[in-house]
Write a structure and sequence with these properties.
3 helices, 4 strands
Length: 100
Amino acid sequence: MFCDPFTINGESLADGAKQSLARFIEDGIGTPDNWMYLAAVQRERFLKAGFRNTRFHEGTETLPWQQFAYMPSGADERYHALMDALELHYDVQWDKLDQT
C-alpha cells in the first residue's frame, strides 16, 4: 500500500461507487497543489491504522516514505523480523508544509 493523494478531474460528485469509478476512469486524476501536506496527513492515518512504513526495494513509482505494509496479528517470527528490518521512521516537519 502507498500514500499518494490525488484529485479526480472533471465532475467529482457521484451517486455511488460504480459511478465514482466510471468518472475516475473517464476523467483521470490530477495532483493537488498541497500534495506534500496531504500525503503527510494520509501517512499519519496509515500509521494510526496499524500499517508500518516499510521500504519496498522494488518500488519504482513511490518514495520509501510513501510505502506501507500491514502486520497481521497471526504473523510468524520470520515476518516480524522482515518487517522490523524494512521498517522506516520519519519525523514530519508540519510547520514547513503548505497546508493550503
